[in-house]
Design goal:
Blueprint (H helix, E strand, L loop, with lengths): L11 E7 L8 E6 L2 E7 L5 E5 L13 E2 L3 E3 L6 E3 L4 E3 L18 E2 L1 E4 L2 E6 L28 E7 L3 H9 L4 H4 L14 E9 L2 E8 L5 H4 L6 E7 L3 E7 L4 E12 L2 E10 L8 H26 L13 H19 L10 E6 L1
Antiparallel strand pairs: 1-11, 2-3, 3-4, 4-9, 5-6, 6-7, 7-8, 10-11, 12-18, 13-14, 13-19, 14-15, 15-16, 16-17, 17-18
Helix pairs in contact: 1-5
């Protein structure tokens, strides 16, 4: 955690992009988890992901073309289907016998769910349906084909660890997220007491009531409650529910490399009238996330000197849980055993 670079966890699903970013017959190249990844959608509408390197001479396949069924390399015209298997080599002559099925650029399991493209990065070549690997979470109250109402993404020049610890930190808001419309005065700290319990691949702040005096919550109806969950490999899910409407916020942290990260924030809302307010909401989200982005860039100046960092009880306990979860996941993968959640139920208190 006190390093500039972080260990990247494999054997898990990561958010790569919005499904709406990939049109039928289109493809795009991304760097994710330190890998070159080509994401595309075939003419039938199915999402796929390939290793974005031609096995012939190493050029990225994204520089080539896609006809809705096969990707053709721009260098020598080799073609690969959406499973990554070679189907044609134009330079071969009639006397050559080549088993194309043995030539592959490599492929990643990919699924599209609730408007998001998830890609599985294996630990040792395993498939995600071979036992221990959990599926991407299905967000409550919204159908599998319902995408987010609003979405933003910002690149963070920091490791996934520092992005995660910054976003789950319960005490930085009064000092980092200061605007004329939010927490103007950092001296007015209030005591907080929250119950936590383990959940799949992480922990949850137990569902509790939200202040009825907040006008934003009144729009959801009566008895508005919230639950916040954190889970590997870098997910924050907040489910706010009232008697009339519900809102789900999702933050995803996807490593680009060991010290670069993509952070996405998005939410789903059952209120149909929110559409006209999307530009304003997106602006506020970018401002809020941009404040987190700015502070981790400033933090990097100190981390360059490899200082020994210190976490304190309660306020930084969730950061400790994050590191414990990462170690347990890595150990369980290496030892070929089931993951055992190290988080235990407890109450945390802090001032914020």
């Amino acid at each position: 955690m006190d390093k500039l670079k972080a260990e990247l966890l494999r054997g898990l699903w990561y958010v790569a992009c919005l499904g709406s970013e990939i049109k039928p017959g289109a493809m795009t190249g991304r760097k994710l988890m330190g890998d070159m990844v080509l994401i595309g959608r075939d003419k039938a509408g199915r999402i796929f992901a390939l290793r974005d390197i031609c096995p012939h001479r190493g050029i990225p396949l994204r520089h080539g073309t896609f006809d809705g069924e096969t990707v053709q390399c721009c260098y020598h015209g080799w073609r690969f289907n959406t499973e990554g298997v070679c189907v044609d080599i134009p330079s071969t002559h009639e006397d050559q016998v080549i088993d194309y099925s043995k030539i592959t650029c490599g492929a990643y399991p990919a699924i599209e769910q609730q408007g998001l493209v998830w890609i599985y990065f294996s630990a040792a070549g395993e498939r995600p349906d071979e036992g221990r690997q959990p599926r991407p979470p299905m967000l409550p109250d919204f159908a599998a084909d319902t995408g987010p109402a609003v979405h933003i993404m910002q690149p963070f020049v920091c490791s996934v660890d520092h992005a995660a610890l910054g976003l789950m930190d319960p005490t930085h808001a009064a000092f980092v997220h200061t605007s004329w419309w939010f927490k103007k005065n950092a001296t007015k700290l209030r005591p907080k007491r929250k119950e936590f319990e383990p959940s799949e691949l992480g922990w949850a702040m137990v569902r509790h009531k939200l202040p009825p005096q907040n006008i934003a919550y009144r729009l959801l109806g009566d008895d508005v409650t919230t639950e916040i969950r954190y889970a590997l490999p870098g997910l924050r899910i907040e489910h706010i529910k009232g008697s009339r409407h519900s809102v789900v916020g999702l933050t995803t942290i996807t490593p680009v490399t060991e010290d670069e990260t993509e952070v996405r924030q998005m939410f789903w809302a059952s209120m149909g009238w929110i559409r006209p307010f999307k530009p304003l909401v997106r602006h506020l989200m970018n401002t809020f996330l941009g404040q987190d982005r700015r502070v981790v860039i400033q933090q990097r100046e100190g981390l360059e000197y490899n200082p020994r960092l210190m976490l304190i009880n309660d306020a930084d306990t969730q950061g400790r849980w994050w590191m414990q979860l990462k170690r347990e996941w890595a150990d369980s993968q290496a030892e070929g055993r089931a993951f055992q959640n190290p988080v235990r139920a407890r109450v945390l208190r802090w001032m914020s």
